[in-house]
Design a protein that fits this description.
Blueprint: E1 3-9, E2 12-18, E3 23-26, E4 29-32, E5 41-43, E6 49-54, H1 57-63, H2 74-83, E7 91-95, H3 101-109, E8 114-118, H4 122-135, E9 140-143, E10 156-161, H5 167-176, E11 177-187, H6 190-200, E12 205-212, E13 218-221, E14 223-226, E15 236-242
Parallel strand pairs: 7-8, 7-10, 8-9, 10-11
Antiparallel strand pairs: 1-2, 1-6, 3-4, 5-6, 11-15, 12-15, 13-14
């Protein structure tokens, strides 16, 4: 596994890979990686000071991973987790994998659990496997399989679906879920949201919730005001629990 440090200053943070190059160039000057020690301060050749921290998997995920597909963002994952209640070692199924973003985030939240992710696209599959190795997560398994055909797992605690033709997967997901398990579906458009909820009427469920997550960040620069740019709306999320 590659080793990374997070260099923090008041202006922001920089992720540095150790061992690749001795000297790293930044906007604030050159850094000698041999001088990096966790919890200590290091200065660039121009005198800029950074606090050296050990990079956590989350830091690598957010700063290093290249997204080759649209992902469910941390703000949406956070909202999803606020609506579900899982044991400390849940079995979670995620489809489609994309670059592995959601699967890795879920694995970080539940280190004692197991996340199984399905991806049929060869490019996305290979990139997700690469990202998994980069972050160093051990409790994720990625399958290069068509989830619209079959979900291998049984008695699943949570299934997260974010893919095209998602209605084709709902029947398989329902069969794989344990009674009381959560089905979470991410819909990028209102049309897909409507299609999903019409399909769900064919199943017996409880605790249904539909929402969109809008985050509006603020900034303080002598005055306090909303940031000019923001993520705002990203998609719609439907959550139901299987009755039977």
């Amino acid at each position: 596994m590659k080793k990374f440090y997070l260099l923090v200053s008041k202006e922001g943070s920089i992720l540095v890979e150790v061992g690749k190059k001795r000297f790293v160039n930044t906007h604030f000057g050159k850094i000698d990686t041999k001088e990096l020690k966790e919890g200590k301060f290091v200065k660039t050749h121009l005198g800029k000071e950074f606090l050296v921290l050990r990079a956590l998997p989350k830091d690598i995920l957010l700063k290093k991973i290249v997204r080759t597909a649209q992902v469910i963002l941390p703000k949406d994952i956070g909202l999803i987790l606020s609506y579900v209640s899982l044991k400390e070692d849940p079995l979670i199924v995620d489809a489609g994998t994309g670059t592995g973003y959601s699967a890795i985030l879920l694995a970080l939240v539940f280190p004692k659990g197991k996340v199984v992710s399905y991806e049929i696209n060869d490019l996305f599959y290979r990139k997700a496997v690469e990202n998994l190795k980069l972050v160093g997560i051990k409790n994720v398994r990625i399958k290069k399989k068509d989830v619209t055909k079959k979900i291998d797992e049984k008695n699943v605690d949570l299934i997260l679906l974010d893919l095209k033709d998602v209605v084709k997967v709902i029947k398989k997901a329902w069969k794989a879920l344990k009674n009381g398990g959560y089905l979470v579906i991410y819909s990028p458009t209102v049309d897909e949201l409507l299609e999903v909820n019409r399909e769900l009427e064919n199943y017996e469920y409880f605790d249904k919730v539909i929402f969109e997550g809008i985050v509006r960040e603020w900034q303080y620069t002598k005055t306090l005001r909303p940031k000019t740019l923001g993520l705002m709306h990203t998609g719609f999320i439907t959550i139901v629990r299987k009755f039977k």
